Amino acid sequence: MTYQRARGDEAGSSLLLTDLYELNMFQAYLEAGMEGEAVFEFFVRKLPPERNFAMAAGLEQAVAFLEAARFSEEEIAWLEAGGRFSASCLEALAALRFTGSVEALPEGTLVFPDEPVLRLVAPLPQAQLFESRLINILHFQTMIASKAARLVLAAEGRTLVDFGLRRAHGAEAGLLAARAAFLAGFDGSATVLAEARFGVPAFGTMAHSFIQAHASEEEAFLGFARARPRQVTLLIDTYDTEEGARKVVRLAPRLAAEGAPVQAVRLDSGDLAAHARAVREILDQGGLGAVRIFASSSLDEREVARLLGAGAPIDGFGVGTSLTTSGDRPSLDCAYKLMEYDGIARRKRSEGKATWPGRKQVWRRFEKGCMAGDTVTLEGDPCEGEALLVPVMREGRRLTAPPTLAESRAHASRQLAALPGPLRALEAAPAYPVAIAPALRRLAEAVDRRLAAG
């Protein structure tokens, strides 16, 4: 069961959570009478080094934002008091509702440079106004889902749990990181609100302080197991890891008889591979072969891969800071750019930041169940393969009920299963083939000629 807090409880629900220049342009567009239909697309310009793909995420929050987008009376009063905007602009802002359409990649879809993740079509002033928050929503979850997907590939089927809330860059980041990680294939999160809000299974053990607060490690183990008899995972490295494992062996029969069988032990420090081998041997010799070993402590995908490559008998991993901050690559080079206005294709030609004009579609080919290549072309120019962008909103309203997070997670799993072998590696691989269709190239050339002619 999930629930939603009332709108207005969070900063993200306010349209003042934007850049001032969006409001400046809103007024300038109105005064110039520029209220024709505009087409904007959000896309990733290029992937970070050693990243072979990205995973689209955040669509559900983007749609919810657009559905609820409006200024409160208090916000309009605040803007009026600031004296920056005209009375006609404030009147338009007060009446603002999203009236446009959205096409997008389903969440969990793998995406590559120059491929539109989301296309928004609406009157120019409102389409522009939503830029900053839409980038904020889509960029963050796409970044985290992409990082989480690498961890899923590295873990090779082991349990993965998000431990990152405490070092996330704010409350919303911590919560949405848990969602994005689950979408990408994580098994759950330590963040309780992620279960309440999104249905992400909550996982939790204990802190070292719990052990330290008791007179002995044995007393702490017994107290925790009796309090949580159905979820007994014991943290064994507060003092001496191997001795902690021996204490678990001694206490396990007693706890089992009390209806609180030990399910797992957790390692959180030191040489995790060496400790895991020693603990596995102690548990096995003590008749606890079914007890799993769960590891945490500054893990990322490379460390997970290294541990498993070294044969460490670890059954699951808790990943915190590196996941929730995407510590090695904390941003994506992405953008939300104008592709058409008032029926005329538009193109940015800035050095290193040129865009492909017009409304686009992405077609993906598969060979023997494996992704074989994409083609970016104009909407209405069918190519070989499967069209990836699907209609999501019309006239400011959803077209259908959104997929559940579990359904989106299953889609992400199928996408990863279809990823070509070289792209599954943690190191840089030859780029996935993305072709720009002749029709799109011809349109770009036509726009360039028009611009050159002034």
From TrEMBL:
GO cellular component, one term: cytosol
Catalytic function, reaction form: 5-phospho-alpha-D-ribose 1-diphosphate + nicotinate + ATP + H2O = nicotinate beta-D-ribonucleotide + ADP + phosphate + diphosphate
Alphabetized InterPro entries for the sequence: Aldolase_TIM, N/Namide_PRibTrfase, NAPRTase_C, NAPRTase_N, Nic_PRibTrfase-Fam, Nic_PRibTrfase_pncB, Nicotinate_pribotase-like_C
EC number(s) on file: 6.3.4.21
Domain Nicotinate/nicotinamide phosphoribosyltransferase: 160-338
Keywords associated with the record: Glycosyltransferase, Ligase, Phosphoprotein, Pyridine nucleotide biosynthesis, Transferase
PTM entry text: Transiently phosphorylated on a His residue during the reaction cycle. Phosphorylation strongly increases the affinity for substrates and increases the rate of nicotinate D-ribonucleotide production. Dephosphorylation regenerates the low-affinity form of the enzyme, leading to product release.
Keyword Lyase annotated: no
Glycoprotein in keyword set: no
Pathway: Cofactor biosynthesis; NAD(+) biosynthesis; nicotinate D-ribonucleotide from nicotinate: step 1/1
Molecular function terms from GO: glycosyltransferase activity; nicotinate phosphoribosyltransferase activity
Domain Nicotinate phosphoribosyltransferase C-terminal: 382-443
Domain Nicotinate phosphoribosyltransferase N-terminal: 16-138
GO BP terms in the entry: NAD+ biosynthetic process via the salvage pathway
Functional summary from the UniProt entry: Catalyzes the first step in the biosynthesis of NAD from nicotinic acid, the ATP-dependent synthesis of beta-nicotinate D-ribonucleotide from nicotinate and 5-phospho-D-ribose 1-phosphate.
Family: Belongs to the NAPRTase family.
Name of the featured protein: Nicotinate phosphoribosyltransferase
Organism: Marinimicrococcus flavescens
